[in-house]
Amino acid sequence: MARRIRRRIAIWPGITVALSFSLLTISLSSLAAETRGYVISMVHTATYYDEQTCPDGTNGSRPDVLIRRVMNDGYDREEAIRIVSSLRINGGRDDEGNLVGSAIVLGGGASFDGDQSWNGFDFNPANVPGVLPDPMAHNAQGRYAIGLNLNDEVGPNSWEHPHTGETGIDNQMWRVLGCWDVYYVNKPVNPYNEGIAWDTSVDAMPAWLISVTGEDLNSDGDVTVTFDRAINIPLRDSYGSIMSGATFAVDSNPRSHSEFKGRIENKILTIEPGDFYMQGESQFYPHLQFTETQLRFEMKQDGSMEGHIGGYQPWRDYYHYLSVRGETDGMIDLIGVFYDLKRFADAKPDPVTGENTAISAAYFIEAVPAFHVDHNGTLLADSVGIGPELSGPAVSQYSTVEQ
Amino acid sequence: MNFSFAQKIKLGLKASLVLAVGSLPFNLAAQTSVNEDQITFVRLTAQQYRNSIRDIFGESIEVNGNAASIGVREAGLMAVGGRRLSLSASEVESYEVLALDIASQVLSPKRRNTLIACRPQDENAIDNACAGEFISTVGLHLFRRPLSEAEIENYSAMARAATDSLGGFYVGLQAALVGMMVSPEFLFRIERSTPNPETPGTRRLDAWSRASRLSYFLWDTTPNPSLLAAAQSGDLMFEDGLNQQVEHMVASPRIEDGLRAFFSDMLAFDRFDTLDIDTTLYPKFTKNVEDEAREQTLRTISDHLLNQEADYRDLFDSRKTFLTPALAALYGVPIPIRQEMGGRVPWVPYEYPENHIRVGLLGQATFLSLFSHPGASSPTLRGKAVREHLLCQTIPPPPGDVDFSLVRDTDNLEFRTVRDRLSEHRDNPTCAGCHMLMDPIGLALEVFDASGVYRTVENGAPIDTSGEWLGQEYDDVRELARMLKEDPTLTSCLVQRAYSYGTAREPTRAEVQWLNTTHSQLRSEGMRWQELMQRISRNPDFYTVPEAAPKEN
After folding, report:
1. B375 reaches A (C-beta below 8 A)
2. Residue B238 CB partners (closer than 8 Å, separation 6+)
């Protein structure tokens, strides 16, 4: 259990008597550690591309997916373009007036009945992607990708980190996604489908919290890192960014509590591998879970943190995220991604089939300072620092840290 | 051609409204003598209009809009300026639109049977008895006095005309109701006074006008049936009857409406209408935060003065307030969160820790933002506000040739803090006289930026909040607040403002004497709000009108 600051927030008419257990905790914790709280302000797949990433070109976006599907039904490219272009006008008919069933967008609640069925399937193939052939999409290649060395090895399929130079980066998820236009971006651009899902979910989704506890978080040393779900949602500032300095009550249900031993070296926070689980309630992440989780966060001067977290993720989780959003918003070929996730999965073999069930992955994380309290209002973590430059210069009156 | 219901009403009303408004004895912004009677006008505020409609027709009636234009502040109060307001043609039109909407709700099929006691014999024809009953009953509440026979006949004729031309009894009633609602008798508090036989040379309000003055003063709304009954019986003209009503009203929870209205006026909340804090510079000051800041101040005052029955002076160094999650983030403090998500904004009572820098009303985002520039804090505006709104002092306007270039150069690396930049004004004899009154107060508040966020440095330089108040030195705003609350001017200003707010005029010399005495007594007793309201409301002079009112014209 992380050592935490435990101070009663003054709630008048005055909650002045704390339980003896809490008093004991106060006296012990005040001798030693400080705990800083954060709220995650952005999560998305860690993207990186350069000229080596997709030497054969990208897979394009949704129209390219549809045109390829129609061409696989025997149409030449010109007619396939005409068919796809007329989808909204006549439902996608060829030059002879025949409805072309393959010219249809999968997933995301697409309707399949009557004439809308795809080549005889009267159900959504996104739900059973294995019934369709593998379209053999392009996969990311090259030397560099964002991520973490999860297995402490440098293998033939591992990458090199483009910014830190670390080798042995395990991120096979990037091989699957890197050549889809929607993911073929570098920061500060976010992958559109995940970015918009986050942006539309965050106002209704209980926040994701991080805390860091240590003797002196301004210096190098061992720390404890926790992840928790809040019971309340984040606030926005006038830029639409997540407001720093807000208070979040930690969900007392332990299902979304993950705790790691960690270390700060030169303002870089890392952890020892462990399991991670977070319930999501977002349009994209109903949950996020990894085994052998690692992270690398930069603790910035303004009090915020930025970096990436990764681990081995059940690959069906990611397929589920994409299929719920569908090809309309996902802008990928669901069938192609399904086969690639299965092909590049690199961990957790199924004891019966031997097929890997998890894939190495990495996600960008940004987090801003926040107060954490428990359901009684007891302060668990302090909001320290002003947050990103544009979030306003709030200075905590509670800080136990020299600023 | 087919017309919608609303179109029919509008068509039927066009001519009759002009007739109705024009036919009433109506001379705005003027004091009218009709024999010995004297009439003065005070326009209802937008909130008073809403409250009146709510109390007459019920909470389910929506007032969709605001026809009242921004008022004028006089003698420190919008309420006093309200005596100067007239109605422009466009405002009459806006009130008409509002009245049409309200009347259509009141007389809608789902409400009419609840709100109208009688039923017409034929819904497609006029029923004079029922129409007259409706007009006299509703008219009593709208005009805050009984309607004369001529007025009832006037509005009945309007109802008849509309019924005949538009073919429906309730359409006719709507026309009459709209006619009453655009009448100055509703839109203005029309105070009628007669020579005071007990004190020659003064005039006293009649019973109906007393009821209105008392009701809008204490509850910010139209007189309730009990008060109207006391006016009808004449009890309000006598000490016992008046005291009985005052006691009841001050003890009622509705006293909070009156308190909120008064402090909104005294603390210049009308500035919220034009507040334009630059959210690119102060991103935490969202529109929601702005609204919540206003509510925070009113909740704090209301709880302190009414629920806690505490001393007004303690509002200035109290550590107790109420916060929302967004306000807590602005102020950089943690609050308990008990609401999972969604729903109404969760307000929580909160007490800043001992020695916290943010205390009292001056540490709230309302005061700090209302008296700032859009892109920078302003010690001058804040100091001026304390002097004028809290201490009832007057600061003359700056001369026309002041050079503001250095003060506005907020990125100047030679003069990093506003204290440095303002030194030019303090050193200039032309400016120094006023700036010495204003700036020291505002400089103590410089640890709060234009949005109310706490800071310790400006342009990298530490902020010096020290100063001097009446010969005593202070280091920061906490010490200034303690000195301010000890200053008798703070409380005498409250007493004077409250009296002026209720009478919508400045006190006469005789009244000032009474106010001074009352202030001394209250100050020694503890400056309780309800006691102040009781004393003012029971004072016979509160219901008098100065014989000579030169500013009335």
Report:
1. no
2. none
Are B369 and B275 in contact by the 8 Å Cβ rule? The answer is yes
Q: Given CB atoms, is B19 within the 8 Å cutoff of chain A? A: no
* Nearest-by-CA chain B residue for A233: B341
Mark yes or no for CB contact A12/B350 under 8 Å. Answer: yes
Predicted local distance difference test score (pLDDT) of residue A20: 32
What ipTM did this prediction achieve?
Answer: 0.83
- Whether pLDDT at B458 is above 90: no
Nearest residue in B to A243, CA atom: B284
Cβ–Cβ gap B454/A376 under 8 Å? no
Position A318 pLDDT exceeds 90: yes
- Per-residue HEC secondary structure of B474-541 comes to ECCHHHHHHHHHHCHHHHHHHHHHHHHHHHCCCCCHHHHHHHHHHHHHHHHHCCCHHHHHHHHHHCHH
Confidence (pLDDT) at B85:
77
Residue of B nearest to A207 (CA): B341
A172 with A314, same domain? yes
Tens-digit pLDDT profile for residues B515-544 = 999 999 999 999 999 999 999 999 999 998
Q: Do residues A162 and A281 both lie within one domain?
A: yes
* Cβ partners under 8 Å of residue B428, min gap 6: none
For B274-324, how does the pLDDT look when each residue is reduced to its tens digit (9 = 90+)?
999 999 999 999 999 999 999 999 999 999 999 999 999 999 999 999 999
- A377 chain-B contacts, CB cut-off 8 A: 335-338
State whether A392 and B330 contact (CB < 8 Å).
Answer: yes
In a domain, A10, yes or no: no
Interchain pair A392, B453: CB under 8 A: yes
CB B169 within 8 A of CB B127: yes
pLDDT in tens, A42-97: 999 999 999 999 999 999 988 899 999 899 889 999 999 999 988 888 878 899 98
B319, B334, B340: residue with CB nearest A247: B334
Residue type, A38: Y
Asked if the Cβ–Cβ distance from B351 to A11 is below 8 Å, we say: yes
pLDDT band with cut points at 50, 70 and 90 for residue B548:
low
3-state secondary structure of B450: coil
Q: Containing domain of residue A81, as a range?
A: 62-131
A243 found inside a domain: yes
Q: Is residue A24 part of a domain?
A: yes
Report residue B55 as tokens. Answer: 């109390």
Say if A403 falls within a structural domain.
no
Chain B interface disruption, residue of A4, A6, A7, A12, most B CBs within 10 A: A12
**Facing A10 at nearest CB: one of B280, B342, B350:** B350
Task: State which of A93, A113, A131 marks the end of a domain.
Answer: A131
Domain total for chain A?
2
